[in-house]
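re the bet — no i am not wrong, look at it urself. input seq straight from the record:
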Amino acid sequence: MEQPISYELLNKIDSPEDLRHLPIESLPEVCKELRDKIIDELSRNPGHFGSSLGVIELTVALHYIFNTPYDRIVWDVGHQAYGHKILTGRRDRFCTNRKLNGLCPFPSPSESEYDTFTCGHASNSISVALGMAVAAARKGEENRHVVAVIGDGSMGGGLAFEGLNNASSTPNNLLIILNDNNMAIDRSVGGMKQYLLNLQTSEGYNRLRYNISKKLHQWGVLNEERRKSLIRFNNSLKSVLTQQQNIFEGMNIRYFGPVDGHDVFALAKVLKEIKDMKGPKLLHIHTIKGKGFKPAEEAATIWHAPGIFDKETGERIVNDTSGMPPLFQDVFGKTLLELAKKNDKIIGVTPAMPTGCSMNILMKAMPDRAFDVGIAEGHAVTFSGGMAKEGLLPFCNIYSSFMQRAYDNIIHDIAIQKLNVVLCLDRAGLVGEDGPTHHGVFDLAYLRPIPNLTIASPYDEQELRRLMYTAQLPDQGPFVIRYPRGRGVLTNWECPLEAVEVGKGRKLKDGSDLAVITIGPIGNTAAKAITEAENTHNCSIAHYDLRFLKPLDETLLHEIGKKFSRIITIEDGVLKGGMGSAVLEFMSDNNYTPMVKRMGIPDHFIQHGPVNALYSICGIDQTGIYNTLIHILNS
């Protein structure tokens, strides 16, 4: 029988204040217990695994040295904040993480005062933390420290560079910690490197440096421009002596590191020594993603969010999916490769999620035909636009919620020029346990007003293949295809590749009492509810698959407007401005006056939980649709 894990120190930490009362010699044991807690919990309750294991020592050191929550720690992204949650009063509730009505999947200010900002999307920490640092100075809170913890993947996002640029020119005392987990720690750092680190972080050195700077300012020798030049020179000199170059050399940001991110004593020491330094500063630490769990250290991508696993053997518990319909993303990936073999203009583009969207299938077969551009959604879209302008045909796959970050790029760099770019929006609709930062429910509403776009959503896997084939035909212009996370409904999905008439919907079922209009895979749920309603009540319900939100099938809508006095629209996007709104506008513009009941995502953010439960909460699961059908029929 498995022995329960003992958390002798961790069970006494109900807040960071309790952690700070411990002697520093206890910190390695706290780190061990914290790591064991996360491994044990996530083996049974899946979540983001490797990222949090990689920053255990940093998390402990930060809360040990800084006076949180008065001092602000901004995490970027929230994948790495599980240890932070456990140390900040949520230890006993951590078993509810990502569950319906349980702890949020990412830091959330509504959940804890220690969660300083929402951080479900990457690269916002420097901008946020700079804003907080400026606000602290404005309010005279000179003792408040602000720290941004950013991973190297997030540092590749454009917003991070915008924040850095502003931080280098705005008076502030911000501390940026760059968690670099993409390269192994060089344990033999060398005498000169260690000497420079010790010198640059020495309290005596920095006190002397500050006093000299202050005197030179008073004597009129050192103005602001000269001070910035000295910082740039200092950074450049360090890069020559340490034989390491970094992007901060030319900025007015003091650079420290690299430091072993798994030496909690070294981290605590350097944080203590640099936290009160004036001006912006960056601490570069090297960590190993998945640290402390060998399988995760060796396969970081797989163990980013591995699902349930055996913590003793490292074996992942994978359900038998043979005979089940495929994931939409796999249909996309396999169809893209099939199309690319026949059309040499096709190029794949994705921002840091080739496995998550199955772009890795094309990457493996044709590595020169696919690009992972890193966490840079805006760049991914504009990069695709540049290739399309020169005659290539990019399939740019971005999760629906992340495509929000590239809105201007879609308009300015794709739509205005009618460029042949296929924008594939994976994870459309409610995505489940990742919660409101990741739900792809806004895409229909925010894309619909943009001229020159074709916007489509497939009813099933075969329709996805046909839409992808249609999108790569000549002169289609910007073509959006959105589809959900998870499995489809067909096992025989490998249909012939045939064109779909753009802007043409389908009547799936005729009827006389009521018309139901759906778009996308939620139409399958509606079809079941319609069958159930007709079996239990004496009624006749028509079902139309709109297929295209833009251009609308006006012939189909005229047929519906002339024939039916009662219409229900069903979509897995927001009601405000979505497909139902488009139908209402059409009916009004053409002087039809049916009663239209719109079903979709209500006007508030939907929290995290199992997908089926969330659809039920929104009333668009089979039961909710059935109840609405009966209510409308009886009204």
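see?? The chain has a mean pLDDT of 90. told u. also The CA atoms of residues 466 and 497 lie 6 Å apart. so pay up
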